[in-house]
Amino acid sequence: MAHAAVVSRVYGMMAEFDSPEALIKAAQQTRLEGYRRFDCYTPFPIHGLTDAMGVREAKVPWTVFICGLIGAMFGFGLQVYTSTIDYPLNVGGRDLISWPYFIPITFECMVLFTAFGAFIGMLAYNGLPAPYHPVFNVPQFARSSVDRFFLCIEARDPKFDPERTRAFLQSLNPISISEVEE
Amino acid sequence: MQEAIRAGTVQEPPLFEGEQTYERITAQIGDIPFEKHPIGWTVMFGLGFTGTTLLVFALCMLLLWGVGIWGVNQPVGWGFDIINFVWWIGIGHAGTLISAILLLLRQGWRMSINRFAEAMTIFAVMCAGLFPAVHTGRPWVDYWLLPIPNWLAVWPQFRSPLEWDVFAVSTYFTVSVLFWYMGLIPDLAAVRDRAKSHLAKVISGILSWGWRNSAVHWMRFESAYLLLAGLSTPLVLSVHSVVSLDFAISIVPGWHVTIFPPYFVAGAIYSGFAMVLTLVIPFRILYPKLREYITMHHIDMMAKVMLATGLIVFYGYMMEAFFGFYSANMFEKYMITNRMFGPYWPVYWALIFCNGVVPQLLWFRKVRHHLWLLFIISLIVNVGMWLERFVIVVVSLHRDFTPSGWGMYGPTIWDVATYVGTIGFFVMMMFLFARFVPMLAMAELKDLWYRLYGHGGGHNGHAKTEAPAPTRTGGGV
Fold first, then answer.
1. How far is CA B38 from the centre of its chain?
2. Facing residue for A18 by CB, picked from B211, B217, B459
3. Which of A97, B81, B96, B210 fits as disulfide partner to B131, beta carbons 3.0 to 4.6 Å?
4. Which chain A residues are within 8 Å of B246, Cβ to Cβ?
5. Cα separation of the two ends of chain B
6. C-beta separation of A159 from A35 below 8 A
7. pTM of the model
8. Which domains, and CATH codes, for chain B?
9. ipTM, two decimals
């Protein structure tokens, strides 16, 4: 690891933009330049930004889908188990598995599980809670939740080089460039 | 007309008032928790707090003496408790409608009221859940309602709508809280970035889980948010349908009707929108800066939804009357005659007046733009929806099949105290929410602002009147 000393000190190089369009363009450029380890920071979700960054994943929907399946099976299974195996109650010879009556609870269990899947899944894939993150060391970054749009190329990107990355970011016409300390 | 809409010459009224920037949106809403609260806030919070103490007192009395202190008895075993339960949970449904269904329908005007309405949902469901929990008579064994393996070796009756209610309402509450809180995370992060005091920084920092506005995080957030919306939509319909099945599965005249689920859902949304208006109009007075985001256009849209659902509800009333006679069933026919001309006739006609006659005023644009009139109408609708539940619950029960079992029902002071107490609790919670949490969804408002006006190189989101609006025709600013 030739860069070990650098990696431990610098998290990345951050550029600040003042409009979503400028940021999307910058993200495209960064990707074309060959950088892969970089992230954008925006005050609200910007459509097309992750496409420009080349990020594509569907982990959350899949998690939600699987949670829904588990929830529905749990709800239905609970009712079938209790009314056939654990405590079968013969009421005038009626069906023990009266499945139409089990639908509402099956449905509610499915929704409950998916909701937890969506919420916890979103946080977990995002690595939250994150009590500390280097990007907050940049003073201007406080405006990432207000009106500024940031792009940060991380030092762990193989193409990262303090001088050249700074020069590249400069070519994108940002408002400011700052080094992010670890 | 179609051509004109496509050409963009017909413009929708603006969804924002005044010159906005991202900075302004954040400052206006995000600073409310740090500002000194208006005097009206103290007054309303005080009233709400007084009501809450009344509620606590009434509940203590109930625990001491049992449900005998209420007016319920044979033949009316469901009184204020179930009326209030259905009323409150119905109010909650508008919040989910606004936050989930209007999101899926891509209605831009939902963005400035969804946070508010979702908070209303949560507090209304809290009030609703209280009633069935305490009406069991022995609330300390309410856990029997849950499928917990126990030494009695019995399980809840999964074929009963009352048990479905337990699952439906608890799921609804949990999902509403998750949905609301998830939407809050980025906004709490924005509050964290603005906080001056250390304490505020720490609290908002913890509650926002270290959110850092990463684009990849936003992508997963949006996907989870949309999925939650998609799941809440059938959920909210299921909840009030299940509530209506509590009645419809029985054979009591006036309850045993197939129209109940859709009719209940429409009534729920109707009363919920009335409650949103009842809250939004005073909050706009208390916090004048909200007027920039909750414009007259928003109020107009809510009034229209109220009118539409009100008409569905009124259609339900007419159908009930029609089928009462058309069924040629002695008991059904008597039920509807008894509603109209029996001992509770003033309640029925007051209901028709509140929910059938008064909302017709909303056809007029002048009425929809007259805040005080609208406020009074929304109050009348709230009352009307409460009366509807009274008519359904009490008037059906008090005279059913055999005249020897007939009786009358009236609330006691403890019924009234509990009901008024929940209203106090609701008011207190709403005002606490307004004080400490960003009242409007800042990130979503900024997103909406960007989509409407921000394109074309507008720096910092300054409006460019010639900017094309991709999702809908944007009004000039």
1. 25
2. B459
3. B81
4. none
5. 23
6. yes
7. 0.88
8. 47-435 (1.20.1630.10)
9. 0.89
